[in-house]
Amino acid sequence: MHKPDKLYASPLDDLIDFRFDERVVNVFPDMIQRSVPGYGTIISTIGILAARYAQPNSHCYDLGCSLGAATLSMRARINQPGCDIIAVDNSAAMIERGQQILASDSTSDVPVTLLCADIQDVAIEKASVVVMNFTLQFIPLEDRLALIERIYQGLKPGGVLILSEKIAFEDPQQQNFQTAIHHDFKRANGYSDLEISQKRTALENVLIPETLSSHQQRLHAAGFGFSDIWFQCFNFVSLVAIK
Ligand code: GEK
Predict the structure, then answer these.
(1) Which residue, of 14, 55, 142, 209, has the fewest CB within 10 Å?
(2) Does the Cβ of 66 fall within 6 Å of ligand 1?
(3) Ligand 1 within 6 A of 65 CB?
(4) If you measure from the C-alpha of residue 65 to the centroid of ligand 1, how many angstroms do you get, rounded to a whole number?
(5) Bigger pLDDT: 127 or 10?
(6) Number of CB atoms found within 10 A of residue 105's CB
(7) Is the C-beta atom of 32 inside 6 A of ligand 1?
(8) pLDDT tens digits, residue range 102-139?
(9) Which pLDDT score, from 0 to 100, does residue 19 have?
């Protein structure tokens, strides 16, 4: 069902901004695995973190769920009465394929609701776990604080936000080093220089990375008393923030 990612393998005259459409859905598992260092580790660890923080009679949210990899990881591990998962993505193509994948998942009977919606419009309530695995980076900069504040308000005491992001660095030398090593990672996974450069251009106006300290300050400003980095590989990090 899923094919290898060749979307940027040939020279494209008209490089349009990246969109999560049908063509991306067809190659998405291969694309994200070969582009995000540690993706498999992050997905399986989200399940472990969710098992620790899920509370009875609460919701676990997967915001920007794509094909539901984090949802399935949580579903296999959470074990609390009255706890369900709400997975949200605004790409209809992602949600449609995600439904098919979910229908063939028999690892557990934790209820999952898949919603095709903008995460900025979805109510967050009675939440014990909120996952944003490489999604905040696609939200307009000026809307990010309000979204994190809403998540904080919707979390129960003791609840967790798991936030994974591609990050930027203030120091140009560090930025250059981290970008170069990430491109080496992509080359090692079979992407050509042309694919790396065309994808970079397509994402330029769509994926806006921020520094680690910007993320930490925003979490603090939204009310989170504790946050920590539990994963970093090059310019990719994942944080936990506890209410
Ligand atoms: C994974 N979490 O496999 N509302 C809803 N969804 C959105 C919005 C929005 N405003 N903006 C972007 N998305 C996944 C990977 S991918 C990361 C997440 C990547 C969705 C978008 O449609 C896409 O499916 C997802 O966020 C980002 O663990 O491809 O780098």
Answers:
(1) 14
(2) yes
(3) yes
(4) 6
(5) 127
(6) 14
(7) yes
(8) 999 988 999 999 999 999 999 999 999 999 999 999 99
(9) 74
Do 89 and 24 form a contact (C-beta atoms < 8 A)? Answer: no
Between the CA of residue 73 and those of 7, 85, 129, 146, 208, what are the distances in Å? 27, 11, 13, 28, 27
Whose structure tokens read 């967790």?
A: 160
Among protein residues, the one whose CA lies closest to atom 4 of ligand 1: 118
Q: CA nearest 47: which of 156, 160, 165, 154?
A: 160
Is the CB of 151 within 6 Å of ligand 1? no
**pLDDT above 70 as % of the chain:** 91
By DSSP bridging, strand 236-242 and strand 226-233 are antiparallel
Q: Residue 233: exposed, middle, or buried by beta-carbon count in 10 A (0-12, 13-18, 19+)? A: middle
